[in-house]
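Issue 218. Parser rejects a valid record. Input:
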Amino acid sequence: MSSSERKLGHLKIRLGDIKLATNNFSETYTISFSDDDFTLYRAELHCLDKENPSSEKGKNKGDHPKGHTIVVIKRYPSGNKWYGVEEFFTEIEMLTSIKHPNTVTLIGFCIEDSEMILVIENVSNGYLEDYLGNDNDMRFLTWEKRLKICIEVANALEHLHSEMEDQKMIIHRDICSYNIGLDENWRAKIDGFGTCVFLPPNQEDEAVYIDSRGRSAYIDPEYEKTRKLKRESDVYSFGIVLLEILCGRTAVDPIYLKESDKGLGPMARQSFCTGTLEDMIDPILKEETSEYKVALKRGPNKESLHTFMKIAYQCVAKTQDQRPTMKVVVKELEKALSFQMNTEVKSDYVEEKTHASIIETQVVELSNDLNSMNMNQTDDPAEPDCFLSW
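Output the parser choked on:
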């Protein structure tokens, strides 16, 4: 047993318990599969019950949290050239070090026979990637919900980049829709910490030089070219996620790969500069801004959309020094949500007054100001304009 295993022994879960929970890794329990990456299973792990002595006490000491019987089981294939024992224990170290509501909680792990398995909290609404490109599923993700997901991921990244208790900064290196889980309350949870890098405090230039890792469509082009890894490399990857949220498709959708082998990023940058990015917006969002008042509550308003598009574009700038910090990104996304929420308050007022006019036999005439407000709110929201000055 390695020293890492001994130190984390209280988190070990027996392979037999995992096989029992998944019926020997039956497809019935599979929620996601990739030959080159990992397989995810959702199952009830009985060894975590209070009655069973396999669990130990006290989450702060690294022990199994109580109540986590339904879990996600993350099984890595053996012989993967990108993910081995080093990455496996890096992921465990990161997950036991990071305390943030928008990162997944580690329940335990198994390294037995040739298996490398992580057991994490259940993300019952799956992963963001599961929704992209699926019209029926994307309808669950209203504009307001999409903004909140983005803000939560941004908050977690800001924490990794600047707010760790021991002053160590973490660069994730694999931010993508595949690694953003959604719990039962649609709260975003960052996953996939196997290729993370600690950036020591007070390091000159706040950068490390290391071979590029990550998914092609999400990887910072400057990092890929120069091996210079900075926090802004995560900002680029997150910018691609913002564009996915906006467009409703994964960054590697065939429609984007036809234009560039790097997928969505370069195509969106070009469209922004030519003022045609609005043509790439998810049609479902445009449906939400239809003429029907009931839909006004969900669709993006002009200011919210402009703010979102602008910060997404800034995040995917070609060079690191042109990108904003995550602190700035959080601020702008919160501004986009504020614009949206203010619109929804007004549209709720319009809808309520409309409903009242149906059920009452007489309608009290509104003042000119309120009447004007109602007229403005019932107009179709204008399509966003993309300005080159952005």
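Fixed in the parser; the record now loads. Confidence is low (pLDDT under 50) at residues 49-68, 291-297, 348-390.
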